[in-house]
Design a protein that fits this description.
The structure is a single chain. This protein is α/β, with parallel strands linked by helices. It has one domain: 3-Layer(aba) Sandwich (Rossmann fold), CATH 3.40.50.2020. The protein is 21% helix and 34% strand. It has a six-stranded mixed β-sheet, sandwiched between helices. Helix 2 links the parallel strand 2 and strand 3. Helix 1 packs across helix 2. The chain is globular and about 50 Å long.
Length: 177
């Protein structure tokens, strides 16, 4: 089993909080007076989604979760997405916002966006706190992006390395030791 060590901070707790507030304001403007279903993609989204949903105002927000995997035991997506935990509601004619911690290869989010659209959602948009365009394997962009980041292995604010570091309040870069 690999061991990892945080070697630098990419974004502080304060920088992330400010950006989440800005994303919440934009989502509030875009969906003002409407209903919105936020679908968090577990496990990494839970910290971001918790903060984000509290920054959305004048919108009837309901929150649900899915869990998908395209990584297996590796840190690189194999492109084969499988749904581990599915939604328990009908999303027909609903505005859906997929909330994710990081848009990396794009395999998982592309698959889930199509799946939810095929289920009859009125709209399906994506919000991610971090986007890593250098790793993109699928042509997909998020509608709401906190930060674009370089191709470094990052942890914290919900992101992990072998299930460690999710609890860090900042985004850190790790190296294998």
């Amino acid at each position: 089993m690999s061991e990892y060590k945080v070697v630098k901070t990419m974004f502080t707790k304060e920088q992330i909080a400010q950006r989440v507030a800005e994303l919440g304001e934009k989502i509030s403007q875009d969906y003002k007076g409407q209903k919105l279903i936020m679908v968090g993609i577990l496990k990494g989204c839970f910290v971001f989604m918790s903060d984000l949903c509290r920054q959305v105002h004048d919108v009837d927000v309901r929150t649900f979760f899915m869990q998908a995997s395209s990584y297996g035991a590796s840190t690189a997506s194999n492109g084969n997405v499988r749904i581990v935990q599915d939604l328990e509601i009908d999303i027909s004619d609903e505005n859906v916002l997929i909330v994710e911690d990081i848009l990396d290869s794009g395999h998982t989010l592309s698959y889930i966006r199509k799946l939810l659209a095929d289920r009859g959602a009125k709209s399906v948009k994506i919000c991610t706190i971090f986007s890593k365009p250098a790793r993109r394997k699928v042509n997909i962009d998020a509608d709401y992006v906190g930060y674009e980041i370089p191709d470094e292995f990052v942890v914290g604010y919900g992101l992990d390395a072998a299930e460690q570091y999710r609890n860090l309040p900042y985004l850190g870069v790790v190296e294998e030791v």
